[in-house]
Amino acid sequence: MLTDTEIYAAELRMWRERFEQHLDQVPVILETLRDQAHPLKAARLAEKVSGGGGEAPLPFRADPVDDCDDLWASLVEFVGEVAERLQEPSPGAAGASWGVQGSVRGIGAGVDGDRAYKAGFALIAWLIDRAQKIHWLGLRDSEDHLFGLIRKLMGRYVAPPIERPSRRRQCVVCGEFAVVVDWVLGGTGEAVCRTCGATYAPEQGGEGDE
């Protein structure tokens, strides 16, 4: 029978895996969205806006721009909430933002894919360094909002998810260290062996759990 300490440790481990796996996707999503939003030649643009005496082509792809702004704003807001609760300054990378009346609306227009990746990495590294403190804060609604957006954008723009090799566990079927818990695509915590395809319920996850 598990002790309260063991149950808490297992719950914390599962929370941290979910937390880190979602945040690990952010830099790649931001880079992908900024790269897809680069200006295109007018002759190749399919999206147009009305104005003046006729229709003028947009100088960018609107959907990736809007999605990138939404993700960046949600991430910066979450970082700000954590910083305020922990009484710490927000990381400098949060300054790569544009906003209206003090409210962050998105990432700066001049930020390209490479800079978006680096800024996103700086923010998620700051959060992951404080993971246990964030767990104690109990910001589940804010987490669910941010993580839901990450899952939506992963499904729309990026696949498969970024994986940390250190998180892979041994499969009891084929013996390979290839079992990965999926918190991003399915959002259920189900584990799948990337070698043989064996699946595990959330409470199993193969051998070698941390």
Task: Please tag this protein with its features.
48% helix, 210 residues, two-stranded antiparallel sheet, single chain, 8 strands, 5 helices, alpha+beta
The largest sheet is: 4 strands, antiparallel
Which class do the helix and strand fractions yield? Answer: alpha+beta
**Distance linking N and C termini:** 18 Å
Percentage of β-strand residues: 5-15%
What Rg is obtained from the alpha carbons, in whole angstroms? 20 Å
Shape by Cα distribution = globular
Major β-sheet strand ordering: 5-6-7-8
Order of helices and strands: HEEHEEHHHEEEE
Number of helical elements: 5
Name the helicity range. Answer: 40-55%
| Low-confidence region ranges | 41-60
Number of strands: 8
What does the average pLDDT come to?
Answer: 81
Structure description:
It is a single chain. The protein is α+β, with helices and mostly antiparallel strands and 210 residues long. The chain has helices at residues 4-36, 62-86, 113-129, 131-137, 140-157, and strands at residues 48-51, 54-57, 97-100, 103-107, 169-170, 177-181, 191-193, 199-200. Helix 1 packs antiparallel against helix 2, helix 1 packs across helix 5 and helix 2 (62-86) runs parallel beside helix 3. The model is unreliable at 41-60 (pLDDT under 50).
Question: Which helices and strands occur, and which strands form pairs?
Answer:
Elements: H1 4-36, E1 48-51, E2 54-57, H2 62-86, E3 97-100, E4 103-107, H3 113-129, H4 131-137, H5 140-157, E5 169-170, E6 177-181, E7 191-193, E8 199-200
Antiparallel strand pairs: 1-2, 3-4, 5-6, 6-7, 7-8
Helix pairs in contact: 1-2, 1-3, 1-5, 2-3, 2-5
